[in-house]
Every structure is written in structure tokens, then in C-alpha cells.
Amino acid sequence: MKSTDLTVTVEEALRIVLDSTLPLSSESIPIMKASNRVLYNDVVADTNVPPLDDSGMDGYAIIAADTTGASRDRPARLQVLGEIQAGASIEGKEVTKGTAIRIMTGAPIPRGADAVIQVEDTEEEPGYVKVFRETERFENYRFAGESIKVGDIILRKGDRLTSAKVGILASLNHDTVTVYRQPTVSIISTGNELADIGEEIRFGQIRNINAYSLYSEVGKYGGIPHYLGIVKDTMAETREMFLKALESDVVISTGGVSMGKYDFVKDIFADLGIDISFEWVKVKPGRPCTFGKKGDKLVFGLPGNPVSSLTSFIQFVRPALLRLMGATRIHKPVVDAILDEDINKPAGKVFLLRGRFTIRDNEFRVVTTGNQKSSVLRSMSEANCLIVVPENTTRMKAGERVAIQLIEHDEV
Ligand code: AMP
Ligand code: MG
């Protein structure tokens, strides 16, 4: 007899998964490979950025007070003492009253100068430059340490490395960075009816979809996916496959976790000593969904239907992968949207409807993307959000507000 104990709500399931998940160890990698990885340590600046006061414009380093009262008709006329290129030395260079030094963007500001007037507001004549407007002190003047000061905690443990953060590491002369290790993730498809891509389809067979959409998801959230293949619905084969899969940090299987006579993935979990925390979630799609642990390894027996396995992945596996690789922001943004159609559903579980939001007049508006059967992946491929219809809500009218989870957006 298969039991329906171990039923949890979506919130409980997520809490159980997160409580069971600890970040992995660290590794040092080149910053060029660090995009999207998560910092293992705070990064403290040991240099100022920029290192020196420098110019924010091509123009002339001047003393601002020398331009008092200057205008197009009555320009200030300053003697040009020389030139400073970006990267050049300023030794022996000094701006004194009534003089200027031609300067390029990024070049160090010479002694004496307290502003840079951009070339567009000047005109050079032999030996002199005419300045056509008053210049304020520190105009176009970039201060040493203005971006980053020595001692600043500039990046934090748990930060996901965006391109700008990789740039910060470069500005501090780091060619490597210590990040959390990426989880390895084994993916198994179960089902006698499955034919893999390229295999001949016999009567009654369907293509194996889940392995590929989940492979894509695992990579997207920082895991290293290993696709182990299709396993037939036999105890022996399933057992052997899971044994192999348990070499990874995370195991994801699809199918075989429901009430069918040949759904014995959970029996195999028990047999392999996987400690099961839940087997059913009060949600549609995705009710059959098993989660367990063996030691530190996380094992997810996801449902077989392609939409169910993807939405279960998004709700439970994705946050676990992010936590394993050290991320502190793991929740997809949820915002309120105005429904543009009526929705009816039975009470008793949360529905996560595939939807598409647009933004009109500063408001999120949302519609469903069509056929909501768990087997219809098409409506998932057209979705950019999941409409969260609460457990005990049965009817919603167009114009009402509903929560939507933005599944294509970064975590917050
Ligand atoms: P199950 O829970 O194993 O009975 O699977 C539920 C439904 O999902 C069945 O219609 C299966 O054919 C389908 N299914 C299971 N695994 C896959 C897969 N990898 N790709 C596409 N459909 C699948
Ligand atoms: Mg099956």
C-alpha cells in the first residue's frame, strides 16, 4: 500500500528543503570564469580606486577661481604650460595662477589645479586657451578613492558575481576569487514509455523532455548537470541508477513518484537509506514530489509531467542549488498583478498557473498562457510568471489582484 502521509504545503516544503541545505565548500577560480558564482568571503579593498586624483574629461587643468566672470564674450585667457596624457607622469608639472595644462580623461591632475574645464568650453590659440564659462572647484575632478577606499568592504560573502562585481575585482588587481563550489547534479528520467532524442519512437512512446529542460535549469542556477539517462520502470535498474547518481551533491529524477503500480522510486529511496521528508505537496501542478537526504546529498523525486517537474524544480530544487552555492538571495520576486481574465479552481491546494505578465500604465497585468494541464509544456514555454492562486480561493474575477512569481527574473 502506498500512503499519502508526508503531505506538506509549498511553504513547508521550501522550508524543509532550505533547512536541509548547507552551502558547499570553497574553491579559487579565475575572475574570468566567475560570472554568477557566489563569493565565499568579503572582499576588502587594499588600494584606492582611482589611485590618484584624475581628470573626468578631456580639457584643461586649471584653478577654478581664474575663470570667475568668464563668458563667451569675455573669456578667461590662461597660459598653456603643457600637456598631460592619460598614464603620464605629473612630475614637475604645476598649475599656477593664470595658467592651465591641457589634460586628457583619466590623466592625473597636476599640482595646483582644482578643476578641469572640458575642451568644448574652450578655444586654444598659440600658447593660450580661452575659457568661455565660469568653472566650479572640482568640476570634472575625480578624487582618489572616490569609487573605492582602502579598507572598504566592497563585496560581501554571499554576493552573486555580476559583471560589475567582476569589474570591481579587476580594479583591485584580483585575478582569482574564492567562491562556493558548484553543486554537481545527476539527472535521471524514469519511464518505460520514454524514448530519447534520436531514438526511434515505438508505439506508445513519447520523447524524454524532462531531462533536457531540467538540465537547462540546473545550469542556469549554477549547478553542474550530469544526465545519466533513461531508466526503465524496474526495481533493479532504478536502484542501480540512483546508486550511481548519489555520487553527485544533488540527485533529480522525474516520474515514478505517484500512485501507479510501477511508481517505485520512493521504494528505492527507502531501500538506499535516503531519509524522506515529504512525498506530496499541496500544489498543482506538482503534487507528487519527494524530497529526501542521504548524508549531505539532496535527493528530489520530481513528478513526471513536464510542467510539474519544471515548476517543482523552480519552487524547491532551484532554491536548494542557490543555497548550496552560497547565494543569500534565493527567492524569485513575487509582485501583485491585475488579472485580465477570470479564474476558477477547486479549493484544497495552491495553483501555480502558467501566465504571461506585461506592464501597462505602471501596473503588472497578467493572463494565463492557455491549456493548464500538467502535460502541456507549450503553455509553460510561453509563460514568464506563475500566477499564485491561494489554497482556499476558488474564483477570481478579471480586475482582481493576484500574486505572480516572476520566474524569468533574478532572485531577490
Ligand atoms: P509518472 O509519474 O511516471 O506516471 O509520469 C507522469 C506523466 O509524465 C506520464 O504521462 C509520463 O509519460 C510523463 N513523463 C514522465 N517522464 C517524462 C519525461 N522525462 N519526459 C516527458 N514526459 C514524461
Ligand atoms: Mg512513470
Write structural notes for this entry.
The protein folds into four domains: 7-25 and 181-324, Molybdenum Cofactor Biosythetic Enzyme, Chain A (3-Layer(aba) Sandwich), CATH 3.40.980.10; 26-49 and 146-180, Molybdopterin biosynthesis moea protein, domain 2 (Alpha-Beta Complex), CATH 3.90.105.10; 54-142, Beta Complex (Molybdopterin biosynthesis moeA protein, domain 3), CATH 2.170.190.11; 334-406, Beta Barrel (Beta-clip). It is elongated, with a radius of gyration of 31 Å. Helices cover 17% and strands 33% of the residues. It starts with 6 loop residues before the first strand and ends in a 7-residue tail after the last strand. The chain has a seven-stranded mixed sheet with strand order 1-19-21-22-18-14-17, with helices on both faces. A six-stranded mixed sheet has the order 8-5-7-6-10-9, with no helix packed on it. By secondary structure, it is an alpha/beta fold. It has helices at residues 10-19, 163-171, 210-220, 235-245, 265-271, 306-324, 377-381, and strands at residues 7-8, 26-30, 43-44, 54-55, 59-62, 76-84, 99-103, 115-118, 122-125, 128-131, 141-142, 153-155, 176-180, 184-190, 194-195, 206-207, 224-231, 250-254, 275-281, 283-284, 288-294, 297-302, 334-339, 343-344, 350-360, 363-368, 385-389, 395-396, 401-405. It has seven helices and 29 strands. Strand 25 (350-360) and strand 26 (363-368) form a beta hairpin. The model has no long low-confidence stretch (mean pLDDT 97). It binds adenosine monophosphate (AMP) and magnesium ion. Adenosine monophosphate (AMP) is lined by residues 189, 191, 193-194, 206, 208-211, 254-256, 258, 260, 263, 303-306.
